[in-house]
Write a structure and sequence with these properties.
4-stranded antiparallel sheet; Alpha-Beta Plaits; globular; alpha+beta; 22% helix; 8 helices; Structural Genomics Hypothetical 15.5 Kd Protein In mrcA-pckA Intergenic Region, Chain A; 9-stranded mixed sheet
Amino acid sequence: MPETLGGLSSNAPSDAQADASAGSCLVRLNKALAQAGLCSRRAADELIQAKAVAVNGIVVASPGSRVDPATDRITVHGRAVHLDLEDRQGHLYLALHKPPGVVTTAHDPKNRRTVLDLLPKNLRQRRPFPVGRLDLPSEGLLLLTTDGELALRMTHPRWEHPKTYHVQVRGRITAGKLNTMRTGMRLAEGETLAPVLVRVISDPSASRDTAVTLEMTLRQGVNRQIRRMCRDLRLHVLGLCRVAQGPVLLGDLPPGANRPLTERELAALRTSLDLPRKPK
């Protein structure tokens, strides 16, 4: 018999089986956390695997566990999560210009300033979560949403969703270095990278002391990929700014400011992810 905690089952049936069960009120734990607006399903799996999630006071270890939102009490890092029992309509879709020095997370155990701290209270209360990450010294476009399915597709490797950066570097730019990035390279730590679209968008001087700006488009999610690529190619990163996530552009949005996505942007974004143009 599977171990059961309230509505929690650690030996859960498949999604199709569960959805087909008439009258069943159990949902996958990662889906419940995503519907609550806490994070994406992928991020929820990571929280569960890190043993940060408890149901009815018992730490959960299986991402496939199921819960009853009407009766089970869920906590993340000891904080209660309010489960929305109604079908969530009117998802929030925001473009934010993350400044350097701000942490890309909803909660930071070190009490550093997070991207949610940049939002007004009425938006924070809707519990949006960041889609993907920008490391602490980086800046640029970051999407925040309450739509877990869209966030999952934007961050899952299967969809290879493009992200474009402007990277200011110091060091000699050669055709060989550009070709290495364009054809795929292996990092010093051993990871093999997919090809990166890269072009020089400022005049590359022959001097090693002159800063050059590269435009780089990635379809991969390796941690600190650009900084590690430049390190291995003996290029020193002076500044890194994400200017696009798929069809959504940073434009002239000031650092620290946010704006809702336009209907056209949202439709283009959802189309690029093979989702209906309008949320259901």
